Amino acid sequence: MKNVTDSFLFLGYWPPAGSFGFNTDILATNLINLSVVLGVLIFFGKRVLNDLLDNRKQRILKTIRNSDELREGAIERLEKARARLQKVEMEADRYRANEYSGIERSRLNLIHSISKTLEQLENYKNESIRFEQQRAINQVRQRVFQQALLGALGTLNSCLNDELHLRTISANIGMFGSMKEITD
């Protein structure tokens, strides 16, 4: 049997030609087997590994493209939403301004209407006061006139006798006659 250290020293040891057999040197055969396996793996695995890496690369690039498209779409939708928001805000501001001006107009119209109504009420009050004053003045005049008539009748009745009465009537008839002659 060979020494293990011999196989390390003589790595190039090959069995004599013409014989076929198993190499029992584990370290030498493992190195050969490993190099063969690695060579086969590299030769055939290179394509498979390249295909796997290319597929992975394509999926990553596709995902990046999709995310870029989604991002661009999201940016576009965001810009549209901002434009709509700005339009709605402007419309809301315009609506608020119109409503405020409408409310202000309504308030001014109401104030104007109330002032007109107050003015009319003041005029009605003044007319009512003038009417009541005139009525009171007429009542006072009527009473004064009645009092004066009653006083005059009382004086006449107490002072008037038949002879004075006849003279007064004839004087009045005379005055009436002279007035008739003037008008004719």
UniProtKB/TrEMBL annotation:
Cross-referenced InterPro entries: ATP_synth_b/b'su_bac/chlpt
UniProt keywords, alphabetically: ATP synthesis, CF(0), Chloroplast, Coiled coil, Hydrogen ion transport, Ion transport, Membrane, Plastid, Thylakoid, Transmembrane, Transmembrane helix, Transport
Record-annotated membrane-spanning stretches: 26-49
Signal peptide range in chain numbering: none
Compartment(s) where it occurs, according to its Swiss-Prot or TrEMBL record: Membrane; Plastid, Chloroplast thylakoid membrane
Principal subcellular localisation of the protein: membrane
Membrane topology according to the record: Single-pass membrane protein
GO cellular component labels: chloroplast thylakoid membrane; proton-transporting ATP synthase complex
Quaternary structure, from the entry: F-type ATPases have 2 components, F(1) - the catalytic core - and F(0) - the membrane proton channel. F(1) has five subunits: alpha(3), beta(3), gamma(1), delta(1), epsilon(1). F(0) has four main subunits: a(1), b(1), b'(1) and c(10-14). The alpha and beta chains form an alternating ring which encloses part of the gamma chain. F(1) is attached to F(0) by a central stalk formed by the gamma and epsilon chains, while a peripheral stalk is formed by the delta, b and b' chains.
Family: Belongs to the ATPase B chain family.
Name recorded for this polypeptide: ATP synthase subunit b, chloroplastic
Organism field: Polygala japonica
High-level lineage: Eukaryota, Viridiplantae, Streptophyta, Embryophyta, Tracheophyta
Name of the gene encoding the protein in the UniProt record: atpF
